[in-house]
Amino acid sequence: MLLGGAAVLLIAGLGLAAITERGLLIHHLAAARHGGDVVAAGARGPQPGLHGSMVLVSGTPEVVEQPRDGDFNLTVATPALDRRVEMFQWREVRLGDDVHYELDWADQLLDASKFEHPRGHANPTSMPLQSHRFVAAMVRVGGFELGPFLINALPGAETVTPEPARLPANLAASFSVYHDYLVTSANPDSPQLGDVRVSWQAVPLQPVTVFARLDGERLVRASQAGDGMGYQVQVGDRTLSDVLPDVPDPPEFTTARRAAAMLLVAIGAFLLLWERRRRASDAMLALAIGVTAIAAVSCACWLGGDWQPVLTWLAVAVGGGLAVTLLHRRMGHA
To answer: How far apart are CA 87 and CA 332, in angstroms?
Structure first.
């Protein structure tokens, strides 16, 4: 009866250890393709020991230093502010063999010399202003500072209403507000060749989830990740499986599962020893056997994966083996 119960406990403990470590290994290998093991940081901010880890954090971006369009004296509480400059120009339109020309807004110079019929469709050769993106000097999510790459990766756009009262004097004389634009048109409803209009869009302050590598106190892209990206930015409060659907969740309560596996094997070993020797003092020997057996199984499970847990479990197994040997000899002489 004792032997049967001992066998069940031994198998259960070894199986629990193998399932736990195998689950951790599968998670580790999948996460490594995206930059490495993932730490769900919540809103705690940088913590000791996280440097170099892949961090998953959610929150609404906090703009510490706002971007500013100095040309128009425009400052907006946003991670990134995009200025779009357009000019009213001739555009060549082809429909099969038919070629015709129409005036339209374009955010880059259209070279009329390349038109099939350039005569009468000359465009300006320069733009008074250029489109530009202004990025906040510092943005935080969940207490983590975002690197420039991640700031630029924040999704979404919302229109910014121009503020004519804040325009410098030289631009106030040239521009007026028309809908969500500043325009140079004398008659905004009927723009003329060479007229300019300017608009802005801002990245909205909305809940996002960021997955990136922690470099000091800043989250950056893991440039050497096997997936070629090394980061993810998504709208909303997302879980790891949402952000990285190909990465399985790691086993929960890992420490408790490991301790339970060692205890099961230790109880099984004690029952075997009790069947033979009937000595309560064998409890310490059984515990050492449990630690050694689970460490050996765990070490074997990590072979082919990360070498750090292999070496860690190997050291535990060797230490446990030495303890088993010493306790066995001491009890043999008792």
So the answer is: 95
Instruction: Identify which of 9, 47, 62 has the alpha carbon closest to the alpha carbon of residue 207.
Output: 62
- Burial label for 245, CB within 10 Å (0-12, 13-18, 19+), is exposed
State whether 71 and 196 are in the same domain. Answer: yes
Strand partners, 86: 197
Q: Are residues 126 and 230 in the same domain?
A: no
Q: Are residues 49 and 124 in the same domain?
A: no
Per the CB < 8 A criterion, the answer to whether 212 and 50 are in contact is: no
Domain count, the chain: 3
* Angle at CA of residue 112, ends 107 and 115, nearest 5°: 115
| Parent domain of 39 | 34-60+207-243
* Inter-residue contact 215 to 230 (CB < 8 Å): no
Residues 78, 159: one domain? yes
Choose the weakest-confidence range: 39-43, 256-260, 265-269, 328-332. Answer: 39-43
Report CA Rg, the chain.
33
pLDDT in tens, 6-43: 888 889 999 999 999 999 999 888 888 888 877 776 55
Beta strand spans in the chain (E) = 38-40, 54-59, 62-65, 68-69, 74-75, 80-95, 98-106, 132-135, 138-141, 144-146, 158-160, 176-178, 181-183, 196-202, 208-215, 218-220, 232-235
Same domain, 126 and 160: yes
Which are the contacts of 329, defined by CB distance < 8 A and separation ≥ 6?
A: none
pLDDT 10s digits, 125-166: 999 999 999 999 999 998 899 999 999 999 999 999 998 888
